[in-house]
Write a structure and sequence with these properties.
Order of helices and strands of chain A: HHEHHEHHHHHHHHHHHHH
Helix content of chain A: over 70%
Number of strands of chain A: 2
Distance between the termini of chain A: 23 Å
Largest interface: A-B, 77 and 79 residues
Strand content of chain A: under 5%
Largest sheet of chain A: 2 strands, antiparallel
Structural class of chain A: mainly alpha
Oligomer: homodimer
């Protein structure tokens, strides 16, 4: 979604420019996108081939590819860091919207968990070192180094708008994004294979093992004395599968931050960072809420954790207990999703009375956020619609089917209304920026900068000193002077809503990411579509659904700060 | 890819505006996108469910859904046409880039073929009317009416920038797009099922019939005296499968034109249609070329048709003849793709010496063209990479494997270089618009209009008469006066290149669309991935590959006109 409104205000006057303006920015981007698409497709081919037992592509091939990609991307990152340290002039502007502190904080947190996972993986493969290919130990070690280098790089440079070696930087960034997406794909595939394995174990019917089982293959190639029998090895194996969700989120967070950097390559900004500040004052962190939202959200969070534990314990037992676990799980999620839907809806209603101006400034971070929220929701939408068709057409008339239908419908409603609320929140101007009865200030503001930009470059259009203020604070002061204070209850309500939705999304993320799979425990869809088709649908769509939750969390933090 | 440059020049001065400017355009778009996504997912669920034999969703369900959607979309179109006829003020601007004549011409052509297909389908289902559900005859009849109404609508209104009932119009357009995409999906799935059926017939091994066979089911439900045994019925059945490619292209062409209309809802344009005219003078249609391009292209086209006929005749015969047919097919495509790669590459080289300014104006049609070219290429890329992995890892060492590898590599190279050439061509300014040694005129041009826009709305910024020319032709005249004539050989070369690539893309489209499937005749990939996985890959990716060819043709026509 590209803004059609004048994007002038954030462009800088030419006097501040580091180098000549690019002739054709899209051409440079095209090259790097072509590189990324091709590398990603090669990775995708090998990873998907490696997931199937019948296909003669082995996991060592995938590990070798990923290791090579991480080494290359790591080298490029080091080169970038060296270059920007040596010539600070190459980064003349920094995008204040990019890489906010909570995103970087989340990245560090997930990065640390990924490092622990790498330790576990190294330990696991070291347990039977003599029977394994060396690449299986080299891979987690390389990944650990890559994660450290990349996290430092994103912490330092996430806001950069670099202006030298444009094409090289774009290609490097795109290659690093590709590396992260390839790691994500490999992790998702490995987890799906693991899930399929444990499902076929619990059902012990061989006809259902459609997806190739990596573990089985590993067991057969390892053979005899090389199998993972020691207690330490078992712990390592269990541990690294439980840490996969963090690795997955790390890769996705890193990809989004790298993408914003890629959009910012060669971008011209006004040096005065116009726009809302992203650092909330820690003193007033909870003072401006009614406390109802966060308290209710935390209660749901705790109940959700209890439900998760009950579910995990009961679902693998005999049929009656499993049914009970499913009923508890569905009841909880239905209540949770229902409340979230109502709360998001009331947030949208509040905005109907809110008279803050819409923020039309160009903001790659926000555009990406909106696209990801809408795109990632598709995954859960698809699963829900397949469930609805299975229940409605298959017409099973029992409690579980009814709960399943309600769950699917509420999931669609909740994601839709939450997306509408978040996207509308992200597009509101900073607090206190109510529009004046006279027309909005944007064009005037844009005018000043566009003039500066245009008049300097064009000898045929001499500058008009009256319009071109030498200091850009002028029009901002003018805007500031007409600001009216906003009614505080609206603001408090919006903050409460954000703080309620936040823990709810976290608990839904934890439930999906750490292995509740009602999709398979519940037999409605498996019977209707057959195991292989339903497993393909869930395994392709669910990773997007899980990513949606975590991305909604990071967006809700932003909504809370902006409200 | 959104332009970051000032998009001012095409915005109109406020005096020309029909209504008040929308507060938040993205909000209105969001609603219609949400509607479209949900409807599309429901259709996708039913259509994919209907394709599998085991799933209890039947083709009558799919037909009923499609018929309902077409009726609704048709009613909305009639409502739109009535409204715009009654109040011509609601369409104050027309986008000169939208719906060029060759796109509308192509739409009419494909629409006529779709009507013929509908006649055949009605005839086929009428042959055993008593054993069929009525919806199977109702569906092609409704489709015929829908095609007529929609083609008329797009012929008349493709350029409209409507300014009343914004949200309703957006939702209506999105719903119509969704209807077309659902028709496309249903046609693609039906064709894939048909292909799988004929493949399993020729191989007559039951283990390969993974995809549900609609026809078998039809045969079994029809039973006894209701089967399609008469000669007329057979002709109808054969005929409508051969006409599917036109129906598929019709739906996609209509979708792209509707999408551009959707982007243009509520758009403000200068009433003087700035930009290059799209109507080529028919006198000079071929005069400005060297004739080498079109002649060589037509020769390849004719040879390709001969190869196609040989292939179709020989491939279903015994093993030796089939092998020979594959060698002929691969040899021809390798030569064709190799030549196309070289020619595209030389086109890009010519642009390195071309000093025309890049056209940075906002142009939804072009943005969509670029996105579709890049996106549709992914389909063929994916097939090629899977082929490459199968040949390289599977290591069969015979002539066919070598030809297959060369074919896959050249396919990637050809699509990449052709995309680069087309996208660069679309972004060049109109012929003769060479940049002056002084800085580009864009900002000055943008300045004038931005000023007009901003100054009128802002009482705090009084208009400066010196900058605000009352007639927008002023700055354009200034641009015109500094234009230098371009060397004609470059122009001729570019036209030649476009006219060479055009028939080549047409013949490659014909080959894929009318049923050459070397992917399955050649056993390398089927043996490596197994039939079900390989069929899934090809059946999902190939429709995009076929669409790519037709879309490249329409873009090349534009390149030819612009050069």
């Amino acid at each position: 979604m590209s803004d059609e409104l004048p994007t002038g205000p954030k462009e800088s006057p030419p006097a501040l420019r580091a180098g000549p303006r690019e002739v054709w920015k899209k051409g440079g981007r095209l090259l790097s996108v072509l590189l990324a698409v091709n590398v990603l497709l090669i990775a995708c081919t090998l990873i998907s081939g490696g997931a199937f037992n019948k296909v003669a592509v082995y996991d060592t091939d995938v590990f070798a590819l990923l290791t090579a990609m991480m080494l290359l991307a790591g080298l490029w990152i080091l080169f970038y860091l060296l270059r920007t340290v040596r010539s600070p002039d190459s980064v003349p502007y920094r995008d204040s919207h990019a890489g906010p502190i909570w995103l970087r904080g989340g990245l560090v947190l997930f990065g640390i968990c990924t490092l622990v996972m790498d330790v576990f993986k190294t330990g696991y493969y070291s347990s039977f070192f003599e029977c394994q290919s060396a690449i299986k130990i080299l891979h987690p070690l390389t990944q650990a180094v890559f994660v450290i280098v990349q996290t430092y790089f994103l912490w330092v440079s996430a806001k950069d708008c670099i202006h030298t070696h444009l094409d090289l930087t774009r290609c490097g960034l795109m290659f690093t994004i590709t590396t992260n997406l390839a790691i994500w794909m490999a992790a998702v595939v490995d987890e799906s294979v693991h899930q399929a394995h444990s499902y076929s174990d619990s059902n012990s019917s061989t006809s259902h093992t459609r997806l190739a089982l990596d573990l089985e293959r590993a067991g057969s190639t390892v053979g005899g004395d090389c199998s993972c029998n020691t207690a330490v090895c078992q712990i390592f194996q269990q541990g690294y599968f439980y840490l996969y969700p963090f690795n997955i989120e790390y890769s996705l967070f890193a990809s989004t931050m790298l993408y914003v950097m890629w959009k910012n390559v060669g971008r011209l900004l006004a040096s005065s960072t116009h726009g809302h500040s992203h650092t909330p004052s820690s003193v007033s962190l909870f003072r401006e809420t009614f406390f109802a939202g966060p308290v209710l959200g935390l209660m749901l969070f705790v109940v959700g954790l209890a439900v998760l534990i009950i579910y995990e314990v009961q679902v693998s037992e005999e049929r009656g207990r499993a049914q009970q676990a499913l009923v508890i799980y569905y009841s909880f999620t239905i209540v949770c999703l229902g409340l979230m839907t109502l709360v998001s809806l009331s947030g949208s209603v509040i905005y109907r009375f809110d008279r803050r101006a819409m923020d039309h400034h160009k903001n790659p971070t926000r555009t990406l956020d909106v696209a990801l929220l809408m795109g990632a929701a598709l995954g859960q939408y698809a699963i829900s619609y397949y469930s609805i068709v299975a229940v409605v057409v298959g017409t099973p008339r029992d409690l579980l089917a009814a709960l399943n239908l309600a769950h699917a419908l509420l999931m669609i409603a909740q994601q839709t209304f939450q997306n509408v609320f978040i996207i509308e929140s992200l597009h509101r101007g900073p607090p206190g920026a109510e529009p004046h009865p006279t027309p909005p200030k944007e064009p005037c503001h844009g005018l000043t900068f566009t003039n500066l930009d245009a008049l300097h470059t064009l000898p045929t259009c001499p500058p008009t000193p009256r319009l071109v203020g030498p200091n850009p604070a002028g029009p901002q002061e003018a805007v500031g002077s007409i600001v009216a204070p906003r009614s505080p209850w609206k603001r408090r309500c919006l903050k409460d809503i954000a703080l309620f939705l936040l823990p709810c999304n976290v608990i839904l993320w934890i439930m999906s990411a750490f292995g509740t799979r009602p999709h398979f425990s519940n037999t409605v869809e498996v019977d209707f579509y057959g195991y292989s088709l339903w497993a393909a649908i869930v395994n392709i769509c669910l990773p997007f659904g899980i990513f949606y939750r975590m991305h909604a969390v990071s967006s809700l933090v932003e909504v809370y700060v902006l409200s």
